[in-house]
Design a protein that fits this description.
Number of strands: 0
Number of domains: 1
Order of helices and strands: HHHHHHHH
Strand content: under 5%
Number of helices: 8
Structural class: mainly alpha
Distance between the termini: 34 Å
């Protein structure tokens, strides 16, 4: 395989990663809508998107292995392939957690208080933005800003929400909805962590001279 063709194949895999990321973004939006909308969507769309995410994971994984076996990659190429392989694992896990959020939300027998849903919506929007930035970091030659400095504040919000829900479980009445929402808050925190990793992996996969310019 010529060097030119090999580089084209690498870029094709990177574009596939971006498509997987955009599918995962859509799944996260669907999951948050299932939790916070007054007229939530059905689980069918989330299920379809989750299946697409799994499909992309398999396709990209096989593409990367094929590239490795065809030609020993130079350091820059190896860094890109490794970054992609790590990123698709994080994206698949984000998809799994998002689908679980949708499932939990749509199975709740009662709706929590509006102020609690508003808190989930605010935190969810921030996590959506982190994920969108992480996917954007893989575009235009895998360049993009790091999002890790924003992680701590959002994690703190998730933790505060979890503690609030924990206190509500000791109140009168059926606490099932609050227990479910506690699990949702943990899933959101995990999605945040994996989204930050996707951005970090894009930065690590960037060409060395580009990384120096962005440092």
């Amino acid at each position: 395989m010529s060097r030119t063709h090999y580089v084209e194949e690498l870029d094709s895999v990177r574009r596939s990663l971006i498509q997987m990321g955009e599918t995962t973004e859509s799944l996260l939006r669907e999951a948050l809508s299932a939790m916070t909308d007054s007229n939530p969507p059905s689980l069918a769309k989330a299920s379809e998107l989750e299946a697409q995410t799994d499909h992309w994971h398999r396709v990209i994984h096989d593409q990367c292995l094929t590239l490795i076996t065809r030609q020993a990659p130079v350091a820059r190429d190896a860094r890109l392939i490794t970054g992609i392989l790590d990123a698709i694992v994080d994206l698949e896990l984000i998809g799994d957690y998002a689908y679980e959020i949708a499932t939990l939300s749509l199975s709740m027998k009662s709706r929590p208080a509006s102020q609690i849903l508003a808190q989930f919506q605010r935190v969810g929007m921030k996590i959506e933005e982190i994920l969108a930035t992480a996917i954007g970091a893989w575009k235009d030659g895998v360049s993009g800003k790091l999002v890790r400095p924003e992680e701590a504040a959002i994690r703190s919000e998730c933790g505060a929400l979890y503690e609030k829900l924990s206190q509500l479980t000791s109140g009168p009445g059926d606490a099932t909805v609050y227990v479910d929402l506690m699990l949702v808050s943990r899933h959101m925190e995990r999605i945040l962590r994996h989204a930050v990793c996707v951005a970090d992996e894009a930065a690590s996969a960037a060409p060395a001279e580009q990384a120096r310019q962005e440092a």
